[in-house]
Design goal:
Elements lengths: L13 H4 L11 H18 L3 E8 L2 E9 L14 E2 L5 H13 L24 H5 L24 H8 L16 H15 L3 H10 L7 E2 L12 E2 L7 E2 L9 H4 L1 E3 L1 H13 L5 H7 L17 E5 L2 E9 L4 E7 L4 E7 L6 H14 L6 H11 L10 H6 L2 H11 L7 E4 L4 E3 L2 E9 L4 E8 L6 E9 L2
Antiparallel strand pairs: 1-2, 1-11, 3-7, 4-7, 5-6, 8-9, 9-10, 10-11, 12-14, 13-14, 14-15, 15-16
């Protein structure tokens, strides 16, 4: 299950597109209280035992906090407890490759055959394709649970013998498909080129220079660290048995505290340990356009409004994690939970993200527009030519007469953000009144901010 879990959809909203980027400042006491309250609520609702977070602002570790119980025996969560980070480990494997590229010992365009010629299509697949999940190698762990074979130890070479010597899923470079197998190949190549174990190389070249305390999840965790949990459907939360050694390796076998990962996030922001061009290589999209996402070398790339985001999630069968870095804002969010169920790690990261950037209310402009229309008014300077055509006299009269009788607007929330369509941003909101709900669909021209469509419809849930 070493794969990322997508965070909330990329927000293109016309509201945020009109807002200037805000560099994250150190958190205030009120913001920390808001974060603590959100985490407590999310843990209670999800029944996840514990969460541990670290927040970076102004390129410094700003806030570190643990919540709940890191073991089901009631052990209070501490910030010193380690959690497996699963697939977040992949960016470290990619960084190890980039260090070897910097040293002139290999190239991202090298073929796998140069190092592991016995693998399928080894003379075609490149190192870059391994790291960008475009190699075509069949993923050995697509499930969200540990299958039977994983109860026993294995080796990286055994994984490759079973999964990297079968036909490719597709022609290398033609598609994007997450593959832990590709990273197992990459890890073995690091060991061959560096002439030492992947763990030793990463400790020597990445972790120690940054003062990071990192262990292997398969064998390095102690009784003081967080114990993973699982559950079947809505059944009781149980201690998870864990996986056999050797399965995660370069695809996800690192464990640390959020504070340690925050040190790495700061290195990304300040461009240390790796050369600046290596960081840029890692953050450059290699996924085909048809993939519908942007992925670098072990990291996802997108934006939240005007805020650039480099992120990756991690998932073991008993732990989930979210790590988000905002390089231009000099900020980062790290969230670990000791549960293999729920989306709590992303819900917590979303809540922190909202507090961190203190954005203008995402519904503010839409709410103001609604109030004007139900009063029979319109600011035509905010609309496109097509938008103004739609709001003719009859439309304005109907909006006024039908909306003015609804009474107080109880709430307005964003609903299913869908990004771009036909070159227009698309936003949906749900407006709740005492006895009914409406859906509001807003389409806007991102180049001008002018509104093409502002339409209200009945909504039934």
């Amino acid at each position: 299950m070493l794969k990322p879990i997508l965070p909330r959809a990329l927000i293109y909203g016309f509201v945020l597109l009109l807002s200037a980027s805000v560099v994250a400042k150190p958190l205030t006491a009120e913001q920390k209280f808001s974060i603590d309250s959100a985490v407590a609520r999310i843990l209670k609702n999800s029944e996840v035992p514990s969460a541990s977070i670290a927040i970076v602002t102004d390129s410094k570790i700003d806030y570190v906090r643990a919540y709940g119980n890191q073991r089901l025996n009631g052990t209070i969560a501490t910030t010193s407890a380690r959690y497996p980070i699963a697939s977040i480990s992949k960016q470290f494997t990619a960084a190890a490759i980039l260090l070897l590229v910097e040293a002139g010992k290999m190239s991202l365009d090298d073929k796998v055959a140069k190092y592991l010629p016995a693998l399928t299509a080894a003379d075609t697949v490149t190192i870059r394709e391994l790291l960008g999940h475009t190699s075509g190698y069949h993923d050995y762990w697509p499930q969200d649970f540990a299958f039977e074979a994983m109860t026993k130890p294995t080796t990286p070479q055994s994984i490759l013998d079973h999964w990297a010597k079968v036909p490719l899923d597709y022609m290398p470079g033609s598609k994007w498909q997450y593959s832990n197998t590709g990273y197992t190949v990459a890890g073995l190549i690091v060991e061959l080129v560096a002439n030492e174990s992947l763990q030793n190389f990463e400790q020597r070249r990445l972790f120690r220079p940054l003062g990071m305390d990192v262990v292997l999840a398969s064998g390095g965790l102690s009784r003081e660290d967080a114990r993973g949990t699982s559950r079947y459907a809505l059944g009781p939360v149980r201690p998870a048995p864990g996986e056999g050694t050797g399965w995660a390796f370069a695809a996800g076998d690192l464990a640390m505290t959020p504070t340690e990962l925050a040190k790495w996030n700061i290195a990304r922001i300040t461009r240390t340990v790796l050369k600046s061009e290596s960081w840029q290589f890692q953050e450059t999209n290699v996924a085909p356009i048809a993939a519908g996402l942007r992925y670098g070398l072990g990291v996802d790339i997108d934006a939240v409004g005007t805020h650039q985001r480099v992120w990756h999630n991690g998932a073991w069968s008993a732990y989930l994690s979210s790590n988000r870095v905002y390089p231009t804002d000099h900020a980062a969010i790290t969230v670990f939970i000791n549960a293999g169920f729920s989306n709590s790690q992303d819900a917590i990261a979303d809540a922190i993200e909202a507090v961190l950037f203190n954005p203008v209310d995402e519904t503010g402009e839409a709410r103001l527009m609604f109030e004007k229309l139900r009063a029979g008014q319109i600011d035509r300077s905010k609309f496109t030519e097509n938008g103004n055509f739609y709001f003719n006299g009859a439309a304005l009269a109907d909006y006024h007469s039908s909306l003015s009788v609804l009474g107080e607007l109880k709430s307005m929330v964003r609903y299913k953000p869908t990004g771009l369509r036909g070159g227009l941003t698309v936003e949906r909101y749900i407006l709740a009144f005492a006895d009914r709900k409406l859906q509001c669909v807003v389409r806007a021209d991102p180049s001008t901010g002018r509104i093409e469509q502002f339409a209200l419809y009945p909504f039934t849930d």
